[in-house]
Amino acid sequence: MSTKYLHTHWDQIDRERLIEEQMSALREYLTDIVIPFSEYYRNLFAENEIVIAELLAPEHLSRIPFTTKADLLSTPEHPDRARDFVIVPDEATLRRRPSTILKAMTQGKEAAQEALEREFRPVMMTATTGRSSDPVPFLYTHHDIANLETTGARLMDICDSRKDYRHLNVFPFAPHLAFWQMHYAGLAFNTFSLSTGGGKGVGTEGNVAMIRKLKPDAIIGMPTFIYHLFNAVVEEGFHWPNLHRIVLGGEKAPRGLREKLRALAEKFGSTDLRIMSTYGFTEAKAAWPECAFGKPGEPTGFHTFPDMGIVEIIDPDTLEPVGDGEPGEIVFTPLNARGTVVLRYRTGDLIEGGMVYEPCPGCGRKVPRLVGRISRVSNMKEMRLGKLKGTLIDFNELEHILDDEPRAGQWQIELRKANNDPHDVDELVVHVELIGSGSKDELESEIGRRFVTTAEIRPNRIVFHDAAGMRKLQGVGKELKETRLIDHRPKADAPPDSREKAKPELEPVR
Known about the structure:
Layout: H1 3-9, H2 15-37, H3 39-47, H4 69-72, H5 91-95, H6 98-107, H7 109-120, E1 124-127, E2 137-140, H8 142-158, E3 166-172, H9 177-189, E4 192-197, H10 198-201, H11 203-214, E5 218-221, H12 223-236, E6 245-248, H13 255-267, E7 274-281, E8 286-289, E9 302-303, E10 309-314, E11 328-334, E12 345-351, E13 355-356, E14 369-370, E15 374-376, E16 380-385, E17 389-394, H14 395-403, E18 408-417, E19 426-434, H15 440-455, E20 461-464, H16 467-474, E21 485-487, H17 496-500
Parallel strand pairs: 3-4, 3-5, 5-6, 6-7, 18-21, 19-20
Antiparallel strand pairs: 1-2, 7-8, 9-14, 10-11, 11-12, 12-15, 13-14, 16-17, 18-19
Helix pairs in contact: 2-3, 6-7, 8-9, 12-13, 14-15
């Protein structure tokens, strides 16, 4: 694949040619980079007798086994397992690379050595957030950072940013993809961008002070934290009419939450506003944006970067590929990464509308787009409700119930045990802030009705809090991601003192 060609015309390639060039790039990448220099995949390809030259079409990808997060987690027998996925070149193999020889001939040995170090030496690290398991480190080289700049500039372009815009990045300072993607996006786009570190950086007051002084044209961050900031701006009562773009990342941004952000923005004078979400994950080393030209309430889907990686959608049960526009699990293979590399990585993320290839109805780009809501496979949990039967709950649907209710502000779903006894029945408690018109009784009734209609369950309790109480429950300014679903159920073998910690930290608003 001609990387130069695709970097220039990456978003205007017809599907047939795109697939052909992607497969060509994959064969080249595996031959020159992954198999020679990745211990894990060198062994995997040998064990499965995979012939790289025979990977000619998308259906041949199935010959490569999937990689999952479990493959990267440390074990007692292999405590540093993630290192096996790092591209570590050896000198003998590098000498056989034509590009290395050419560099040495034209610019000398030192220049060749420096070029190789910039391509292969790890200089930065991000990590998975580690809520369900230990964090997994992902290493970056200067080559990967250049990719972050490329994808960041594309993200700015797709979101229709402007060079003269002032951007406020309120993602937390952390070894987390979202922050670094936006940091390098600002640099690559050659625009003003101020990073505050979110609530864990300068705090709520500091962020509001920055908004008051800077009056940014665009704000980028976690949806729940931006919602919190907008409430603070409204409470202070100052005018902010030049806010034109909200770019959300790090967590889901359902339609209901976007409408609440838009309503708050109108209160401080912003009416020419476009709200977009991004989808990224540590293993991809990139975030894919929605374009700025979708109609309100009708996102155009996440625009992928097909020259940087191959996206597959599979049935999570059969593990077979699904058709265009059909729901399934997102699987990713990079085509140009260094540092930590994973192939056919199962994200555990389900895309409701699958992947489509027709030109975007908003911006016209010809790139594969991920359409519809994204949910987590791991969010499907079985819990026993009542004493006689078990119910399978999709917590993704419960979240949409609350985000789509206009009178529900900040919220949290808590799982508990009755009487804090690990042997007793499960309870589902909804913590919520009442906003807008209406009474607590009306909102409590509506939430109960929606839960029964959607999930055939009813919350055991609905507890109302004020805004400050909800911020404390969610961990605003303390956690990397605000906590909206929390499991406080004590384990049967937990000591009694640990069970006491499961009690709520806050008293509800009476």
